[in-house]
Amino acid sequence: MATLTSTARCKRVLGIPAGVTMHDALLDDLVDVGEQQVLAYCGMAALTATTVTELYDIENAGTSELRRRGFPVASVAAVVCAGSTLQATQWYVDNRPGILRLAPLGYYFPEGRQQVAITYTFGYAQPPADLQHAATLCAVAEFNRARHAGMRSEGVTGYRYTLDESALPAAALAILARYVRAFPADATA
Questions:
Q1: Pairing relation of β-strands 99-102 and 91-94?
Q2: Beta-bridge partners for 85
Q3: How many C-beta atoms surround the C-beta of residue 47 within 10 A?
Q4: Among 47, 5, 12, which residue's Cα sits nearest to residue 29?
Q5: How far, in Å, are 2, 77, 107, 179 from residue 172 at the CA level?
Q6: What are the angstrom distances between the C-alpha of 181 and each of 98, 141, 176, 186?
Q7: What predicted TM-score, i.e. pTM, was given to this entire model?
Q8: CA-based max dimension of the chain
Q9: CA end-to-end span of the chain, whole Å?
Q10: Per-residue confidence at 189, pLDDT binned at 50, 70, 90?
Q11: Beta strand pairing status for 112-122 and 151-154?
């Protein structure tokens, strides 16, 4: 179920009166599509606040940072390294890329399988309003594409047409630029 937008929100943007329900089934589907487009574009695993514990293999000596799979990182509850819980002063989180780093410089994680366990929360307690609007714009764009099969422009004299080549609306891309994960999560971490 979508948490970023709704059928009612999309209808307001499209100028469809609330009492007109002939497009509601399609819009119900597209609000989920809009949310998934936002998640995929930004590199987010989920929107709602989710707490997880992840285990990490340390394959190289000298590793002092780990990228979180979940993004954006809201808080880190615990970092356990080789069975010992690290103090909050021994690490910090760079939220933009979702990286947990050891502090001070020169500290490294020990090599081995599942040497580090990180319990953290990612996502939003309440998604930002502009992110909600971006999802609405994506859903509305999909609604318009469905009706015109990807056409960007059409002419009458000497019939001509241009296909829309963009996956997401420009206004949505401008909003999403603030939320894109700076570096992708390590698939093998």
A1: antiparallel
A2: 80
A3: 22
A4: 5
A5: 17, 33, 41, 11
A6: 8, 23, 10, 12
A7: 0.73
A8: 75
A9: 29
A10: very low
A11: unpaired
pLDDT digits (tens, 9 = 90+) for 59-70: 988 999 998 888
DSSP one-letter code for 124: B
Say if CB 93 and CB 99 are below 8 A apart: yes
125 — alpha (psi -120 to 50), left (phi > 0) or beta? alpha
Q: Yes or no: say if 120 and 75 are a contact pair by the CB < 8 Å rule.
A: yes
From the list 77, 28, 24, the residue with the least C-alpha distance to 54 is: 77
The total number of residues written for the chain in this structure: 189
Q: Which strands, in side-by-side order, build the sheet including 65-67? A: 65-67, 99-102, 91-94
Whether 188 contacts 66, CB under 8 Å? no
| Token representation of residue 113 | 């399988």
89 with 157: CB under 8 angstroms? no
Contact 6, 135 (CB under 8 A): no
